[in-house]
Amino acid sequence: GYRSRAAYKLLEINQKERLLRPGMRVLDLGAAPGGWSQVAAQAIGRSGTVIAVDLLPITPLPGVTVLQGDFTDAALLAQLHTQLAGQAVDVVLSDLAPTFSGVVAVDQPRSIYLGELAAELAVTVLKPNGGLVLKAFHGTGLDDLLRTLRQQFVRVTTRKPPASRAQSKEIYLVARQLRPLPA
Ligand code: SAM
Fold it and tell me: Has UniProt tagged this entry with the keyword rRNA processing (predicted)?
């Protein structure tokens, strides 16, 4: 079984997108309790590796290296770069979400900002042609986030997997084929 209901969202996205392949290196941001990491570890098999990052602890999973901390924190980023050892990753997954206050004017900018920061990190660690699955939320800032991704990646689509509740503003952005970084 999976540790989270969220696992089914990534399963459904990956069934359509065929993003995760055997042997890949994957970075999973906002990974606790570990459902997406489980799905990724299964899809990439024993020759692949998942690095999972979260503020919260994650019970160990086979094939998954856990880094506990804030992904925007310099100390955590240093640990991440040590772990990567100069090798870029094939796919970045981000199911990051802030702690919701219930006030849209507070929650919307916070969630979009988290997505922007995740996308910024993704482009620095991804291989050229790498891919990104990013949780985002309908509302102010989504169009700008999509526009930024379209400048950085060749193909960007949005997906609302059946496992994501219809009432939820949550949506997943799938960005593929990172363009080579400008010199
Ligand atoms: N995909 C996960 C799964 O399938 O088990 C569920 C992820 S949950 C929706 C979002 C996670 O983002 C939370 O566990 C939260 O702690 C984490 N998060 C939020 N802000 C973070 C940050 N700045 N650094 C690291 N993790 C963060």
Answer: yes
Pocket test for ligand 1, best of 54, 68, 101, 170 (most atoms within 8 A of CB): 54
Q: Annotated catalytic sites, by residue?
A: 135
Does pTM surpass 0.80? yes
Tens-place pLDDT, residues 136-179: 999 999 999 999 999 999 999 999 999 999 999 999 999 999 99
Q: Which CATH architecture has domain 6-178?
A: 3-Layer(aba) Sandwich (3.40)
Convert 51-81 to b/e letters by CB count within 10 Å (16 or more is b). bbbbeeebeebebbebbeeebeeeebbebbe
**Residue 173: strand, helix, or coil:** strand
Domain ranges of the chain: 6-178
CA 89, CA 91: separation in Å to the nearest integer?
A: 6
Reported residue count of the chain is 183
* Residue 33 CA, ligand 1 centroid: distance in Å: 8
ipTM, two decimals, is 0.99
